[in-house]
C-alpha cells in the first residue's frame, strides 16, 4: 500500500509539473527585454547587465553601466564594461573573479536592457516613452514599437529631433504613404538618443494649443499652452529636469512663415541670476528640447538639484 501511494504521488507530481510547463508557455511575454547572450552587441553607457557569478548568488545580479562606461561589482570593484561585448566581458570577469576566488568556475554576462541604443517617441502614438533596442530599428518600426500612430496622427510631418554640435536638428519625414510606400531603406536611419515626434493634424480639438517638451525631463510629452505658457513653466509641467539635463543649452524650436527657427536658451543663468532673456513665452506648436550634459559633466554633481528646486519655486511664486 505504501508503495502504491508513493507511485501515485510520483505520477501526480509529474502531471502537475506538466500542467505548470503548459501554463508557463501560455503566459504573455514580459514587457522587459528578455535576458539573452548577444556576442555581437557592444555594451554602452546606461545599459543594464545581468551578471551571473557561477555558484555565488551573493555576487550575482543586475548592474547598470554608468556614463563613464563602468560598473561596480562586489570583490572586483570598478570594471569597464563599455566597448566590450557580453562574451568579452564574460571572459574578462571570469579571469578576474578566479584570481580572487579560485572556486568560481565561470562568470556569465547577458543583456537585460539596451538603454544605450534608445530613442524617445512622443506625440500621437499609443504608448509614448523611451525605448531601448538591441539594434536600432527603422523609423516606422520604432513608431510601431510605441503602439503605432493614433487616428489623429499627421504622418506627413513626422520629425526626428537630434542633438548636434550646433543645436537641435529637426529632420522632417513624410510617412503618409504607410509602411509599404515608405520604403525603410529610404528613411533616415535613427541614432541613439533621437527624439521622434509624431504630431497631430492641425484641425483636431486642442490642435492649436500644444507645446512639445522633449529630452532630459522626467515626463517628456505634449502639454497645453495654458499649463505651459513659458519655457520654465513647460519644463516644470514636464516633471522638471533630470539629473543629466544641460540647462545651459535648452533649444526652443518654432515654425513660422519663414521656416524653422531654433533659439538657444540658458535656463540655468535665468534661475541663478534672474536673467530675463532665458525664459521665453511659448506659442502653440513650439518644441522645447533639453539635451543631456556631456559625460564629464554628468560626474560633477550638486548644482542641478538646486536648479530643479528653483524651477519649482519660480512656478509656485507665479501662481
Overview in brief:
This protein is α+β, with helices and mostly antiparallel strands. The protein has seven helices and 15 strands.
Please explain how this structure is put together:
This protein has helices at 2-26, 86-100, 139-145, 178-181, 231-237, 267-273, 303-318; strands at residues 48-53, 61-64, 70-73, 77-80, 107-113, 118-123, 129-132, 158-164, 167-173, 195-198, 210-215, 221-224, 250-256, 259-265, 287-290. The chain has 319 residues and is α+β, with helices and mostly antiparallel strands. It folds into 3 domains: 48-113, wza like domain (wza like fold, 2-Layer Sandwich); 118-204, Outer membrane lipoprotein wza domain like (Outer membrane lipoprotein wza fold like, Roll), CATH 3.10.560; 205-319, Outer membrane lipoprotein wza domain like (Outer membrane lipoprotein wza fold like, Roll). It has a 5-stranded mixed sheet with strand order 7-6-10-8-9, with helices on one face. A hairpin with a 2-residue loop joins strand 8 and strand 9 (167-173). Residues 1-37, 203-207 and 296-319 have low confidence and may be disordered.
